[in-house]
From TrEMBL:
Signal peptide: 1-22
The organism of origin for this protein: Digitaria exilis
Any one GO molecular-function label of the UniProt entry: oxidoreductase activity, acting on paired donors, with incorporation or reduction of molecular oxygen, NAD(P)H as one donor, and incorporation of one atom of oxygen
Listed name of the protein: Cytochrome P450
Main location: membrane
GO cellular component: membrane
Amino acid sequence: MDTQLLVLAALLLLPLAAFLLAKQHGARERRGKNGARLPPGPPGLPLLGNLLLLRRYSFDMEALLRRLVARHGPVVSLRAGPTLSIFIADRRIAHAALVESGATLADRPAVSRSLLGENCNTISRSSYGPTWRLLRRNLVSETLHPSRVRLFAPARAWVRRVLAEMLGREAKEAAPPPVMEAFRYAMFCLLVLMCFGERLGEPAVRAIAAAQQDWLMFVAKNATVLAFWPALTKILLRGRLEKGLAARRRQKELFVPLIAARRERKEKMSSGQAGYAAAAQMTTFEHSYVDTLLDIKLPDEGNRALTDEEMAILCSEFLAAGTDTTSTALQWIMAELVKNPEIQEKLYSEIKETCNDDQEEVGEEDRHKISYLKAVVLEGLRHHPPAHFLLAHMAAEDMEVGGYLIPKGATVNFTVAEMGWDEREWERPMEFVPERFLPGGGGDGDGVDVTGSREIKMMPFGVGRRICAGLGIALLHLEYFVANLVREFEWKEVPGEEVDLAEAREFTTVMKKPLRARLMRRTAG
């Protein structure tokens, strides 16, 4: 249906076709200061560009890019209407673009910044400038700084118990359900508490999770087609846009009362000791992400405070960044441990050597002593990155990278998964081999810097100025939950349910056949 609508739009605008064809041809012939040309790519149609090709491969973009890279080289270009998109599949060129070129590629495409007509005051979609710096600095220093992260240790311990109890109950069923639902619910329990400062009941958490999932699936399914000539798609796809607006309204219905409760708490706390005591009875946690948003003032907009709507969207961004990606990565890692019991046993043995039997959990400090744990998590992120592409970057000015011209305004993306699977850089890249990351072991992952500051060999969190702000806490959560899940249970295949590592694309890249596992509680000693 999308293709029919867009072809209709193209026919209605046919008088412009010849002009745009000539313009596209001229762009292909354009050269940079040093003679660099635009990256090669497949021929396109007037107005539509390569849109029909993109539609054909909409559910397997990686297959299309593999084909194009094999034919044209590691940097290729595609057009969707007036938008030029460039894809980089070489780690050295990626480093030159994202790290060495600094701010030139730190912006976001205008379309992604204004999805559904919203303003761009979010960390992931803001233009590279003072508002983005303010919002990111607030998140990093006030919520994700190690001193703040430690405040949430009791929340992580509570969620660990919730998850273990849920998995323990499900393990007793004759046909255990997929574990992803339990993982996702647990991550929402944790991130909702970190965001709003409230330990909400199960119905409230599940309502927030459902609203978030509706929004994320809308974005995953519609962002590309809505970005094709927004002035047209806004008219032709009004029904689809209304679904997105409805998903946003539902989030705000759930989030704004929680934001108002934190605002009231803050006001009571500032009124004195009596007010503080009253406020303490209203909440379950002393600090939250929303608390920091209440203090923000936007200096380039008259020093105004954030609106409730802006804070609700920032809360949605916070939850999306910490729930779906983490639960997806956790499922992939546990699936590999089920499929490779010898790796699971090696990890369990190291955990037992590090932690006493009378310890309630593998503590957050204990994880630093378990080198194989970090190796397992890094190998999971290399082999199964939750996002196979980054959020699109935009060139702020003409730049030349790898001998190619990237013109101002072009969107640029990177083949994250393919870089982690590159057989020129990794030995047996399609096998799950945590040993490659053991320190001092001399493996191809020994000493890998996931921030990509020195070089890029894998980039599950992106690199450069737009690197994921939550990198540190994501690794903490994965290491903490993997360690405790392995210590609590032995994970085995369900008879007749062999682990299938085939992929499916949702908001993240998930298991096409969700993991089911037979869990056996381990006995102490």
